[in-house]
Inverse folding.
């Protein structure tokens, strides 16, 4: 590669952080703080030039995602704090699809799955090991679950996250409460 | 250039390989000695180089790094194998912050 020809850019901001760097394996540079208040990706790019003056590059990304919550609760509806208290899963995710393990609540409880409204609509909730569909609550069970997408009913609840950002969550609930450990496949 | 230079020695014909000390000497190889596709070895960094098509400029641009790793490997193009902000998580919760100030890119 061509000597002293490495450049580093803040691609998302459209600013050049450094040029003419030597290939030393690291560079200490001042950058601006980055805070994203919605799902986003921030990208920095390093670029070099080979001996034929052809540029080559690689990017570094930081992604901002929302949490997807899964867990059990005996109440038929959930407040924002109750959603954040669901304890079986609270991972930062780019999408809702996945497999979620619910611990045995010890007594009858509803099984909840909560994902940001912006993630879209699950079309299937099935018990992972058997493929048996879960029966999810509808407006007939509780008026809070009056929204329907892909044939599955859900409630909408605004949730403030740790950083004070409000996100509207879809709350999906099993039609009945029960105990036992289950693994749910959501797609 | 001398008549007993191996590259021009009629006993061998044009030789497609030469060994030199470094890229400076590589770039000093005269046009008469050059053969498109010839390989050169620089002892200073133990790299192989392949001579590209003319026009030649007497600079590094005349040569491409050559990887003698096996059949079909062709030119060896440089690449960054990784790039990241040191200590920075790849995923943050919405509302969280990548701190500003002096940061190390690795």
């Amino acid at each position: 590669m061509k000597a002293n020809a490495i450049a580093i850019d803040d691609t998302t901001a459209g600013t050049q952080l450094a040029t003419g760097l030597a290939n030393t394996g690291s560079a200490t540079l001042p950058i601006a703080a980055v805070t994203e208040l919605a799902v986003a990706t921030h990208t920095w790019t390093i670029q070099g030039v080979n001996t034929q003056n052809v540029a080559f590059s690689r990017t570094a990304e930081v992604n901002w995602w929302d949490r997807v919550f899964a867990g059990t609760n005996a109440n038929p509806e959930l407040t924002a704090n109750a959603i954040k208290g669901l304890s079986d899963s609270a991972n930062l995710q780019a999408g809702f699809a996945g497999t979620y393990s619910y611990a045995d609540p010890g007594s009858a409880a509803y099984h909840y799955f909560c994902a940001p409204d912006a993630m879209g609509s699950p079309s299937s909730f099935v018990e992972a090991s058997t493929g048996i569909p879960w029966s999810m609550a509808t407006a007939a069970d509780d008026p809070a679950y009056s929204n329907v997408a892909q044939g599955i009913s859900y409630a909408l609840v605004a949730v403030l996250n740790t950083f004070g950002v409000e996100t509207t969550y879809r709350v999906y609930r099993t039609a009945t409460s029960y105990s036992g450990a289950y693994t749910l496949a959501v797609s | 250039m001398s008549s007993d230079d191996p590259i021009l020695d009629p006993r061998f014909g044009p030789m497609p390989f030469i060994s030199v000390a470094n890229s400076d000497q590589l770039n000093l190889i005269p046009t008469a000695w050059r053969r498109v596709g010839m390989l050169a070895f620089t002892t200073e960094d133990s790299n192989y180089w392949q001579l590209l098509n003319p026009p030649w400029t007497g600079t590094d641009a005349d040569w491409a790094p050559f990887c003698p790793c096996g059949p079909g490997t062709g030119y060896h193009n440089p690449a960054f194998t990784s790039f990241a902000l040191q200590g920075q998580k790849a995923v943050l919760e919405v509302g969280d912050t990548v701190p500003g100030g002096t940061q190390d890119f690795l």
In short: Chain A has two domains: 6-63, 67-186. The longest helix of chain A spans residues 80-84. The CA atoms of residues 27 and 104 of chain A lie 50 Å apart.
